[in-house]
Design a protein that fits this description.
This protein is an all-alpha fold. It has helices at 2-13, 24-53, 58-94, 98-125, 127-133, 138-153, 155-170, 174-197, 207-231, 247-278, 283-319, 323-357, 363-376, 380-395, 400-424, 428-451. The protein has one domain (23-458). Helix content is 82%, strand content 0%. It is globular, with a radius of gyration of 21 Å.
Length: 461
């Protein structure tokens, strides 16, 4: 027990670690606790954000939901880039090639900045057209287009936040990622009500204020990340020796990122398809679904943080030529993740009405949110398994397998099934929720079967 307490304290204190040599249980604790706490803070932000915005009415809530469905494309690119970064940088760390790891990290940052420009242009020029394309009502478009433009236009902040935190985690310094995200989200939680409702000297900006608060919080966090890269002595540093363009590394990052981005883009862009189906059912349905999804994100993001630990452990241990240790770490993390999310799912099923009442008292919105929570809770066991297995593939540099699975589960199964059940079978929003449950459960089962085949162990990065 004393060793466990010491490990927990060490994980929170934070130092760069080599996870290829210490006991596997200690490696998981030191890496998992900061990443789980990091994701818990991110999930708390998601809940607080929708808590304040929901006070502005169904249209404002629908604006957030529609915009977030579009922002999942940016998140997909950020996750794809961070996955590629993790795969390459953690492998170099496992090989003890720290200069090469730092050079690779800078190439990832450079690539993220370049990719952000097209999104900035679209967000700045055509936010109204984007919302109209998504099927938003005229009221939603007129009240929310500035919110949409700010979030899409400031996408470089999101991409750098993803990439830089992946670099810290790959070097075994997950606690820094946790504190950076804690800082960003704490600022956002404080600034959200100030800019939305005009507290004190702040202007009352309504839904636009939520975007302003988010951009300021995340932007200051990115500045903090670069300060740590430049001013602190770490395995990964930005110095005059690392600030250079290495086309070979960039090409490798692009190759891995294409697989990773495709993987996450296929998964997250399916949200766009789901929202396009939902907008035909009314603003109240979109609002209820948006609140419920934010609550679900609150519950599964800590589990996603734990699955990130699997990605790093796989990358470092394969770099150190220890494939059995890499596999064993994935099985342990999978069991812990499934136990955690199963318990959360049971609690959320019975508490769904009470949870939704925190955010709204409008009956139509409330009923949709409760239905969504109670249906999706049945898939929590499979969500837990699927996210760990997918991250294990990514850590090994095998982005093809989860990409193919996402394509099958989300676009060949989920979207057509959602349309059929909601529109043809006349099940409305219930049909959409059932299609999500089926697709996510299939993803978990198929991921497990392919992981057991073991081909990911031989992937060269």
């Amino acid at each position: 027990m004393s060793n466990l307490i010491k490990d927990i304290i060490d994980s929170i204190k934070g130092t760069e670690q080599d996870f290829t040599k210490m006991k596997l249980g200690r490696s998981i604790i030191l890496l998992a606790i900061p990443t789980v706490l990091e994701m818990m803070m991110e999930s708390l932000f998601a809940i607080c954000d929708i808590f304040f915005v929901s006070r502005l009415g169904a249209e404002a809530t629908a604006t957030v939901g529609i915009t977030e469905s579009l922002m999942t494309i940016v998140y997909a690119i950020g996750m794809g880039l961070s996955m590629a970064t993790t795969s390459i940088v953690s492998r170099r760390i496992g090989e003890h090639k720290f200069l090469k790891a730092s050079i690779s990290a800078f190439q990832a940052i450079l690539l993220g900045v370049l990719i952000s420009f097209p999104f900035f242009t679209v967000g700045a020029i055509a936010p109204k057209q984007i919302l109209a394309f998504m099927g938003a009502s005229n009221l939603v478009i007129e009240t929310g287009y500035i919110y949409t433009g700010i979030l899409i236009g400031s996408n470089v902040i999101i991409l750098l936040l993803f990439i830089n935190n992946a670099i810290f985690r790959s070097a075994g310094d997950a606690i820094v990622s946790m504190f950076v995200l804690f800082f960003a989200n704490l600022l956002n939680i404080i600034l959200d009500p100030c800019f939305i409702f005009g507290f004190g000297p702040f202007p009352e900006l309504g839904i636009t204020g939520a975007a302003v608060a988010t951009s300021i919080g995340r932007g200051l966090a990115v500045i903090l990340q670069f300060y740590l890269f430049i001013r602190k002595k770490r395995k990964i540093q930005i110095t005059k020796n690392t600030v250079l363009v290495d086309l070979k590394i960039i090409a490798r990052l692009i190759k891995l990122s294409v697989g990773g981005i495709s993987q996450f883009l296929i998964a997250t862009s399916s949200w766009v398809g789901l929202y396009m189906i939902m907008t035909k059912l009314g603003d109240e349905v979109v609002a209820g679904y948006t609140i419920a999804i934010r609550v679900i994100i609150f519950s599964i993001l800590p589990a996603w943080g734990l699955s990130n630990a699997a990605s790093i452990l796989v990358g470092q241990n394969l770099g150190a030529k220890q494939p059995k240790r890499a596999e064993h770490s994935v099985w342990i993390i999978s069991l812990v993740n499934m136990a955690f999310l199963s318990l959360v799912g049971i609690c959320f099923y019975f508490a769904a009405p009470l949870i939704m009442q925190i955010f709204t008292n409008e009956k139509d919105i409330l009923d949709v949110g409760v239905l969504c929570l109670q249906i999706l809770c049945f898939g929590y066991l499979f969500y837990a398994l699927g996210m760990v297995m997918s991250q294990a593939f990514n850590g090994a540099g095998d982005t093809y397998t989860p990409t193919l699975l996402n394509l099958i589960c989300f676009w060949i199964v989920e979207i057509p099934l959602a349309y059929y059940l909601s529109s043809v079978a006349l099940m409305n929003e219930k049909g959409v929720f059932i299609s999500i449950l089926i697709a996510e459960s299939m993803l978990g089962i198929f991921s497990l079967l392919l992981f057991k085949r073991g081909k990911w162990k031989t992937k060269v990065v």
